[in-house]
């Protein structure tokens, strides 16, 4: 199919081609997603008293192990095409005709079918090391503004008053509201 010298013929009528203006543009949404990620809870593996360096070391080892046990297995999939029916067009004299319908490609996407399994293997590996997954709510801005910028070095005992501050450099700090 790629060996041909002439243009490939299209089934869609050229007059009916148009861009769907409702299509999202991911590069424009990236700042929004980054902002929302900074506002959400801090999801980490937690073991009281463990150093953050040890946590990161254990998590990296478990991630590598999980990747070996449940490697990336991408599958290419296709959404079904969508049929757009033709239109009935009538003149003022009452004569009518129909424009032809056309198909819109559903699109192709990739799925890693081992992603969920890899996540479970990671969680199990971390559980074997004494960690459990937790989500720590973000600190209110009134709390975050009063605390000097720092990084948590040792995981504190969590209480209902614990909250997390995500720093600009990607690090985080767990504090207990007073």
Topology, element by element:
Blueprint: H1 26-39, E1 42-46, H2 52-69, E2 74-78, E3 82-84, E4 88-90, E5 96-98, E6 102-104, E7 108-112, H3 115-128, E8 132-136, H4 141-144, E9 162-166, E10 172-176
Antiparallel strand pairs: 1-8, 2-7, 3-6, 4-5, 9-10
Helix pairs in contact: 2-3
Explain this structure.
- The strands form five sheets. The protein has a two-stranded antiparallel sheet.
- It has a domain at 75-110.
- It has four helices and ten strands, in the order H-E-H-E-E-E-E-E-E-H-E-H-E-E.
- The radius of gyration is 27 Å and the shape is elongated.
- Mean pLDDT is 84; it is low at 6-24 and 32-37.
- By secondary structure, the chain is α+β, with helices and mostly antiparallel strands.
Sequence of secondary-structure elements: HEHEEEEEEHEHEE
Label the structural class: alpha+beta
Ends distance: 69 Å
Strand content: 15-25%
Largest sheet: 2 strands, antiparallel
Q: What does the overall shape look like?
A: elongated
Q: Please tally the helical runs, counting DSSP H or I stretches of 4 or more residues.
A: 4
Rounded radius of gyration (Å): 27 Å
Structure summary:
The chain has a domain at 75-110. The chain contains four helices and ten strands. It has helices spanning 26-39, 52-69, 115-128, 141-144, and strands at residues 42-46, 74-78, 82-84, 88-90, 96-98, 102-104, 108-112, 132-136, 162-166, 172-176.
Key descriptive features of the protein:
single chain; 178 residues; alpha+beta; two-stranded antiparallel sheet; elongated
């Amino acid at each position: 199919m790629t060996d041909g010298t002439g243009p490939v013929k299209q089934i869609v009528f050229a007059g009916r081609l148009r861009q769907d203006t409702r299509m999202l543009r991911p590069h424009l949404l990236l700042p929004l997603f980054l902002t929302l990620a900074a506002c959400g809870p801090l999801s980490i593996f937690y073991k009281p008293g463990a150093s953050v360096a040890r946590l990161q070391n254990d998590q990296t080892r478990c991630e590598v192990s999980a990747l070996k046990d449940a490697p990336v297995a991408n599958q290419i999939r296709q959404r079904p095409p969508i049929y757009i029916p033709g239109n009935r067009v009538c003149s003022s004299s009452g004569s009518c005709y129909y424009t032809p319908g056309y198909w819109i490609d559903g699109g192709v996407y990739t799925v890693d079918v081992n992603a969920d399994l890899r996540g479970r293997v990671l969680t199990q590996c971390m559980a074997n090391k004494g960690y459990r997954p937790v989500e720590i709510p973000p600190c209110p801005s009134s709390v975050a503004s009063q605390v000097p910028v720092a990084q948590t070095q040792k995981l504190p005992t969590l209480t209902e008053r614990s909250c997390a501050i995500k720093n600009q450099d990607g690090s985080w700090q767990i504090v207990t509201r007073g």
